[in-house]
Amino acid sequence: MVTLKINNKEVSVPKGATILDAARKLDIHIPVLCHHEDLCVAGNCRVCVVEQKGSMALVASCARPAEEGMDIMTNTMRVRSARRHIVELLLAEHRSDCTKCHRNMNCELQKVANDYSIGEHIFLDLVEDHDYFVDRSSPSFIKDDSKCIRCQRCVRTCEQLQYVSAIAVAHKGAEQKISSFHDRPMSHVVCTNCGQCVNRCPTAALVEKTYIDQVWDAIYDPNTHVVVQTAPAVRVALGEALGLDAGARVTGKMVAALKQMGIDSVLDTDFTADLTIMEEGTELLVRLKKALVDGDKEISLPMFTSCSPGWIKFIEHRYPKYLPNLSTCKSPQQMFGALAKTFYADKRKLDPAKVVSVSIMPCTAKKFEADRPEMRSSGYKDVDFVLTTRELGMMIKQAGINFDTLEEARYDSIMGDSTGAAVIFGATGGVMEAALRTAYEIVTGREVPFENLNIKPVRGLEGVKEASVKIEGCVDDWKFLEGAELKVAIAHGLTNADKVMKAVRDGKAEYHFVEIMACPGGCIGGGGQPIPTNQEIRQLRVDAIYEEDEQMVLRKSHENPEVIAIYKEFLGEPNGHKAHELLHTHYVEREAY
Amino acid sequence: MKDTGLVKIDLIFEKIDVKELLIKAFKMSDEAIVQEVITSGLKGRGGAGFPTGLKWKFAAFEKEQEKYVVCNADEGEPGTFKDREILERVPEKVYAGMAIAGKAIGAKVGIIYLRDEYRYMLPELQSLLDEFHKSIKEIGYDFTLEYRLGSGAYICGEESALFESIEGKRGEPRNKPPFPTVNGVFGKPTVINNVETLVTALMVVKIGGAEYSKMGTPDSPGSKVFSVSGDTPNPGIYELEMGMTVQKFVDEFGDGDTKAVQVGGAAGFCVPRKRFADTIIGFEGVPTGGSMKLFNSTRSMYNVLHNYLDFFVEESCGQCTPCRVGCQQLLKGISLVKKGEIKATYLNDLSKLAETMRLASKCGLGQSVGNAFNSIVDNFREEIVY
What we know:
The complex is a heterodimer of chains A (593) and B (386). With 593 residues, chain A is of the alpha/beta class. Helix content of chain A is 34%, strand content 13%. In chain A, β14 (355-361), α12 and β15 (385-388) form a beta-alpha-beta unit. In chain A, α9 crosses α11 and α9 packs across α15 (430-444). With 386 residues, chain B is an alpha/beta fold. Helix content of chain B is 46%, strand content 14%. Chain B contains 15 helices and nine strands.
């Protein structure tokens, strides 16, 4: 421990902690812009400068380790003047069209500017001197260099959390900017559209591409039938966008709000999450049988999950050799979309051409996924519009709904039923747990041998988790698995995914089934979730997900009555012909840069 | 005020038997070498002036097995060309200086980071390095040097940006601490010295620290190589004793009409005629890495400042706010004042901004932009405005 003084108050912090950490311990506020809890230190915005007794220059509190005996002042004349100047400088090169900005009222630069009551500008406007570029090429997000304050959070996110490095710092001096490889459009680089940069951008230099107006238009159009699906992770985060605490569970209120907004049918992605388990679980068992019993050398193991479109694009760019290892199952969003304009339209006697399928996702990559040419198996665009949790929050505000006092409502039917197994898709390890709950029972006829169905070893925010399940007492059809040890791994965040991929590639890991989610914490930490994000917030959302699961009556996907019904009435068998046509897909190899 | 007067010295370029000196040096203990350099009072000749002996001592103190000596040959300060001359005339002394630094701190590897513009010298330098490797092997000492080339960025002369560049990354200064002696190139303890510093340290070992410190002043002991340019009949490279006044310098090199001397390049200070007599060239007055640029009355100091700011706008790495945006503000500000589009009093706001840049920038580049700005604006305000 080291002991130092900040504003004449003593504080002790562990060795290696920064002055900023120490100040926070004392509840002393120091503004930051480039600093982010999830990322390494940058120390480049300089807005966190403080005075250190004995030092001629000011020091950046986010980057300077606390030292024994330091005497720090955070609000001297020099500090105040420097901070004001720095904020002014940032504003000088930032297009400050706040009232028209997507991040208005939720912008870190705006907040700091407000705190330092920047009134009339001292400095000269530099925006017009720059040839700023707005890149709208990605279906998921917009990159607007005129809003960029060069904090490099996005660069660090892409490199450290995601191991993608689709963006990096280019050029120097006044020309310095955040750019892609050879300035190519974001749609033509290795970007996975995960949106983690969007989540951490302090301004609107990186924002999701919104489809709010299009969805309102569809709602207002009397000739369309708007069907909405909501992803599992949205219900534990939407509250944050509407002023509630992190971890608030707002499923019923969300459904009620959507109904008030005029959505014709509010349904649940959880239904197709359960369906995914049926399809993917069956696919895994079939692969295992072919590999272990039939000795089929063509079968690729381990099998990787395919729910996360950021992960899909990552493997398509980076490890195309392993595309056969991906489950062919579409993600729950796309299964839902394909069924909405076939099964659902049919049942409800609707013209599928008039069904507008909207999904509410914690994710920006889902926008890209919905646009993929493979995702038209209904004969139409399976999912017309994808909105993020943040966009839904915005729409609820626009609709003038008081979210807090809203009476809870229930999902519509059909395709509105779900189980706890589907809800936990939202957290890292959830797909694995749901799959195990079902697969184990199919194979042995008994529930998974974990207390209250909670498979704890696959839960938690550790980067890579491994577990194994011994299979004993198999029913006749699956006798070949008797005594086998099913080895699984779970990774979240693409940096962790890459570690797993390297281990698999180098033959250092022998897994049967691997769950990978592109975002830290899984979907609850998705790029479309409310800003800000950090480990603490993600943990609260994870906790909420498991609470949601615990209070469900049904907690195993194969027990979902609507799932049972849809196989009977429409799909036939899991992995059967119809299922393959609508619920499975294929992947493409992409460039490595 | 001790004024040494203008005394020409021949230490840096003196031809010596390097092998003989190394044999002598390698018989000394590591501590003794460090102590000689400390005794000499030698301060870094790249411009910042950190005591060389202390730097070596800190690095020697580190327990790591792997350590490095890095020679900063990224000479990029406008008006500085003395390291080029040293590398052309006495490269073997640079190599020997690095070997001695290596012995003193316990490093077996040295890296010379050569600015891209000096690439033409590389074939010659490399063949001399091969000879040096042979001769050091004959002495029975294990030390290897290699060249790394820059790519033309001024910022890579900043030590931590230089490390990043060597490591193959974008040349951006790091947060300090940790300092290079603890966490230098490849994360290992590193001594990084300027070309001239390494040769000077070698000569300190030759003549003794005490003897060396007799030259110059207490704050600026020893001699220094100056690059003299601008309005002078005698431009070129001169080794002079430290501690002369600007007046003595101008008496020797001026053209009779000198109105200002820019000491230390774009990052340095502008000394106006009225301050020539009471300004010492050295750490007690105006320090310099070697650049001495004379301006006569035909020169517009607005153009001089504009040129420097233009340089900084382009050469800032762009990483930190005060430097990236501040440089642009200063340049645009003086341009608009000159055009009469904003009031002359705006220069006061810009001076305050220059002070913020000095206080809050991440590295020496941004911290020193205010030197030239404030010293030119303070002394030649009318030339900026009218």
